[in-house]
Design a protein that fits this description.
This is diguanylate cyclase. It contains twelve helices and four strands. It is an alpha+beta fold. The chain folds into two domains: 2-203; 276-424, 2-Layer Sandwich (Alpha-Beta Plaits), CATH 3.30.70.
């Protein structure tokens, strides 16, 4: 996913983040408003339907209760309620509820019970209507025939019809309320899922932006700390990928420059050996290691015999060639792990780790003999003089060891000159 996103620019991905934030919020807001408005309208319609459905039966029950108390207002020469109109209204209400209740939101068992109760109540109400009608015509006997028993039965039947109808309306309302509750839960669930998906996509997009920046900072920190091998992975074609490529190119250039600078600072340009700074640093490091472990170490100071004569007679080019030739011969005799460096001029330093004095002398004799044999008969190939110092016999201090090796080398040269003078005499 990140590699795919890295094909787009940072600006495009930031635009995608904004879109992922605004689009779900706008969509969900519109959907939420629509659902809530629909529920509000459904609730209002449900309340109005409940009033229109139950009001006729409630009014009829109330009027019958009043007639029960007053034994009909007609007897006191007051106006008589319009029972016939209420009865027709109730019949129309049941017809309407039955037609609209064909769906699954009306409990049909309760609606049927309400209709049956009204069927039982309607004869008593009808007789009451007939009696009231005759009473209005002036029939006093009919008025007297209106008994409390008839009123009580009519009231009871109407009350039963109202209760059953109220239960049916309540069941319909409860089902509608449950459906609205489910809609709200689905709406909340939709909000949660949509926002979670948007958040996940935003995290992925932000990661595709922030991860390369973090890697760039980490690699730059490593590079600043001296790790010239620090590089970045190029994963896409966006601005950050171009920056990574430029960083890698810069790091490669500085690594090469650093390598060349270090070579110039630590390598002798003529012989390719460690220069004075480098060989003395290697000697100091080996002394620390061998002193802590009490292991033997040997040092040879080396210079070339008759080097000045070669330079004066054949020129500096011949002298440089002689230096390179001697360096190669000494390197061929040394073991793996031994160090050879040029101190300057025609002087070299050899560091022999884990080497006893006897082993060092044997190696020095072999080296001097090999070079003398190779130089025999050549006026441009010099021999070498060696001076030995060992630790811990002489010292663990570098300056003392170098002084001892230098002194031993000049003592050896002096002995060699004396021996040549004796041979001449």
């Amino acid at each position: 996913m990140e590699r795919v996103l890295r094909r787009f620019s940072v600006a495009q991905r930031i635009g995608a983040i904004i879109l992922l934030l605004l689009a779900p919020l706008a969509t969900l807001s519109v959907v939420s408003m629509a659902v809530l408005n629909r529920q509000e309208m459904a609730f209002r319609d449900s309340v109005e339907e409940s009033l229109h459905t139950l009001l006729p039966l409630s009014t009829l029950e109330q009027l019958l209760q009043r007639a029960m108390v007053d034994e009909l207002e007609a007897q006191s020469h007051e106006s008589v309620p319009d029972f016939a109109s209420l009865t027709d209204n109730i019949d129309h209400t049941f017809a309407t509820v039955e037609t609209s209740g064909a769906g699954a939101d009306v409990p049909m068992d309760r609606l049927t019970a309400a209709q049956q109760a009204w069927v039982q109540a309607r004869p008593s109400v009808q007789r009451l209507i007939e009696q009231v009608t005759r009473s209005q015509a002036g029939d006093g006997d009919v008025t007297a025939a209106l008994s409390r028993r008839e009123l009580s039965k009519a009231i009871s039947d109407v009350r039963d019809a109202r209760k059953h109808l109220a239960a049916a309306v309540k069941g319909r309302y409860e089902r509608a309320a449950a459906m609205r509750h489910r809609q709200l839960w689905w709406l909340v669930f939709g909000w949660a899922i949509t926002l979670a998906a948007a958040a996940a996509m935003i995290v992925i997009v932000l990661r595709s932006i922030l991860r390369p920046i973090h890697e760039l900072g980490s690699s730059a920190g490593r590079f600043a700390a001296g790790d010239m091998s620090a590089r970045l992975k190029v994963r896409g074609r966006d601005e950050l990928s171009m920056l990574a490529e430029q960083f890698n190119a810069m790091a490669a250039y500085w690594e090469q420059t650093h390598r060349e600078a270090m070579a110039e600072a630590t390598v002798d340009a003529l012989t390719g050996l460690p220069n004075r700074r480098r060989i003395l640093a290697l000697l100091a490091a080996e002394l620390d290691v061998h002193r802590s472990g009490q292991r033997p170490l040997a040092v040879f100071m080396v210079d070339l015999n008759n080097f000045k004569s070669i330079n004066d007679t054949y020129g500096h080019a011949a002298g440089d060639e002689a230096l390179v030739w001697v360096a190669e011969r000494m390197r061929a005799v040394l073991r793996e792990g031994d160090h050879l460096g040029r101190l300057g001029g025609d002087e070299f330093l050899i560091v022999l780790p884990d080497t006893s004095p006897e082993q060092a002398r044997e190696l020095g004799e072999r080296m001097a003999g090999a070079i003398a044999s190779a130089a025999a008969g050549s006026t441009t190939r010099p021999t070498i003089g060696l001076g030995l110092a060992t630790a811990p016999e002489h010292s663990w201090h570098m300056a003392t060891l170098l002084g001892q090796a230098d002194q031993d080398m000049y003592l050896g040269k002096r002995r060699a000159r004396l021996d040549r003078n004796d041979d001449v005499m």
